[in-house]
Amino acid sequence: MSTTWGSDNEIERRQAIDYHLVPEQNQWFVKVFQAATPGLTFLVNRYDRAWLGRDVMAGIAVAAYLVPQVMAYSAIVGVPPVTGLWTSLVAMVVYTVVGGSRLLSVGPESTIALMAGLSVAGLAGGDPARVVELSAALSLIVAAWCFIGRALRMGVIADLLSQPLLVGYLAGAAALMIAGQLGKLTRTDVEGESIVDQMASFANVVTETHLATLLVGVGTLAAILIIHRIRPAWPAALMGVVGAILAHVVLGLGSYGVEVVGEVPTGLLAPRIPQVSWSEFRQLIVAGLGVAIMAYSDNMLFARGFPALPLPGERPSDSEVEPQGELAALGIVHVAVGAFGGFPVSSSGSRTALALASRAHSQVYSLAAAVCVLIVLLVAGQITTMLPQAALGAVVVYAATKLIDVGKFVRLFRFRRREFLLALVTLGGTMVYGILAGVGVAVALSLLEMGQRLARPRSAVLGRVPGVPGMHNVADYPNSQTLPGLVIYRYDAPLFFANIGDLRRKVQRIVDEEQRAYPDTPLCWLLLNVEAITEIDITASDGLKDIHGDLEAQGIRLGLVRIKRELYRPLQRAGVIDLIGHDLLFPTLPVAEAAYVKWLGKNPIETTVVEEATETSPAPGSIQAVWTAEEPEDPTF
User: Fold this and answer.
1) What confidence tens digit (pLDDT) does each residue in 40-58 have?
2) pLDDT score, position 351
3) Going by DSSP bridges, is the β-strand pair 486-491/525-529 parallel, antiparallel, or unpaired?
4) Fewer CB within 10 Å of terminal CB in the chain, N or C?
5) CATH for the 457-627 domain, from 3.40.718.10, 3.20.20.70, 3.30.2350.10, 3.30.750.24
6) 327 with 146: CB under 8 angstroms?
7) Where do the domains of the chain lie?
8) To 5 degrees, how large is the angle CA 325–CA 331–CA 337?
9) What gap in Å lies between CA 106 and CA 74, rounded to an integer?
10) What confidence tier does 115 reach under pLDDT thresholds 50, 70, 90?
């Protein structure tokens, strides 16, 4: 038996069900394990063997791009190339188990490598062995910050880096990366940590450029760019590096003074605790916080920018990465990386894009890439004795060009000049003061921008527009209408200590403008539409009392419209509700207008507008019909 229901039938209510919004307490151990290992849980429960071929091929393609890339990033940090390979191997395997993204390529990344290198350079004193120990300790510090962030539910930190700041920051990081490779590309001694010092140092030694080394670097970079331009799907970086190795062998570049990377030690590593002093550890704590913020931000941004391929019957939200869980995953990855002597990692947009282009379905592609890296570590150590240093420098420069997006600067300029200016300020801060300071500048500017918008939000006086349902900003409609003696004002932000003064000034300005425009019609009610005010602090609550006092002194009653329970309760505790009175709290705008009309009938003012409006019968649904509606006896908030 079937029934139909709709506009012609009376709909009967039915028994509510339990939607299981509160997690069940049984099998807690299994649920905790699954929550801690989302990657492994997906592979066990949902992996389709039909994906294996695609995933393996994607892993090989990613490994072909990854090997020369991470060896170049090792040069940025100042550690041997083998350290970069071990770092990538451990990061990929561990993230496959604990990571929330099916597609993200986690491992060494250019910006994080640069941050790590700058953080440990001053403490290492030029000793490569100390750089390894310090960078491993920095990884463990990053892990600790990630765990602290997870405990405090600080996953929201990624949202503090707005698009303009990321555009400027990444461009600044690219400039620092390129400046850091000038010495390798020219075989000169370029000193200094800031880009200003490095450029000044390079200007003094540029005449000492080793021509053969420069040709190798420029030739490798040109080859990579040309291959990428003609065949974007090919591993351009690997092909450029292989070409440099062949050129070194065939042309005998060593006899021309071209320096090589040197032999990469082969074999397996055992986990151990980095040997650093307590003084060094303390100096790395602040640097670790900056690295953790940027590593996590990169992970979340790339995870959102490169969603996994949809599965049958899967909603888009099912493949989204859980922000808090990703903090824990990043912490676990850094524990493993630090234990094996690796430097801090993040995610690579270029490798993730390559995996997506190769139609990878899961992190099995990362496992396949890890196997390829392990083979290189075990049997290919002699290859780097023929790899020119300048070729790795060219790979770093190529990676830096991926961070500079001129089109995004143009888009920001066209969208809003202030957004473009923020990007330029962040770019300059990163270049002049360094990458760690750039992180601070980016976060500080994000907070200032957010604070400025909250402290001086948009607001509007609302009125009716003939022929347009609802109430609208009177500034948007020249023919908008308001009731005499009534102003409904909407303030579009949570109320707190930074903007309550702004609200108080604007309320008084509205009163002054209303009295100036209609001197013969006194303002009786000012209703504050609080639908956008979702939070309030004690300073703002006291400020509302002050506004009530200002209006009361002028013979004006203050009321609140569209108040929610989340706002009602703190206002009640602060005494604002008792001060205003429940008779001036309204759930909707039509109810508020109707209440005012009813009050006006008992307290007439010197005007004929309302009388003229009631001379004709109101059309159904018009503002006049709403004004004549009866006020509900007990509005519900």
Assistant:
1) 988 988 888 889 988 998 8
2) 82
3) parallel
4) N
5) 3.30.750.24
6) yes
7) 38-311+328-451, 457-627
8) 140
9) 15
10) confident
